[in-house]
Design brief:
globular; single chain; mainly beta; Jelly Rolls
Length: about 160
């Protein structure tokens, strides 16, 4: 079994796979009578030519480290954003595409207040909260065509 160590989630390291959603640095604008900072347009949302944006609520069972990674998936028709509804960290697993197959996975651990947007066609692990209640707002493509491909690894990875 291959070993993968988690790393902190940063915009720079995650950029090839998607966007880190967080209120970091100075806001782009101050709104609402000067009482609210707006961090504007932070995700590259993509719902394809025949899709539309949908908002769903996911409730996932929490996992723990070490975590056994057996499969990854991707969505060829649209991006997928995960915004936690609590301040708990979660595990984000992605892999580069290598001729239609996932390459060596990377594992990121979010900080409180971070969400992610996965770009269209990005190989990624399943939603992996590390604490109850595992609630997330998910923005993704709603459309008439299939939007899920799975890849099961011959040899699982252990993420620590």
């Amino acid at each position: 079994m291959g070993m993968i160590h988690t790393q902190p989630l940063t915009a720079e390291e995650f950029a090839p796979f998607g966007d880190v959603l967080e209120a970091g640095g100075e806001p782009d604008r101050i709104i609402n009578q000067g009482l609210c900072g707006r961090f504007h347009d932070r995700a590259r949302l993509d719902f394809g030519p025949d899709g539309r944006a949908g908002i769903s609520i996911f409730k996932a069972q929490p996992r723990s480290l070490p975590y056994r990674l057996e499969m990854v998936e991707r969505h060829p028709e649209g991006s997928q954003a995960f915004i936690p509804m609590t301040a708990d960290p979660f595990l984000v697993i992605v892999a580069p595409d290598e001729d239609g197959q996932p390459g060596m996975p990377l594992a990121f651990l979010t900080a409180p207040g971070q969400g992610i947007n996965l770009l269209r066609n990005t190989w990624h692990g399943v939603l992996t909260p590390l604490a109850e209640p595992g609630l997330f707002a998910v923005f993704d493509r709603i459309g008439p065509t299939p939007n899920l491909q799975e890849h099961w690894f011959e040899t699982p990875y252990e993420i620590a």
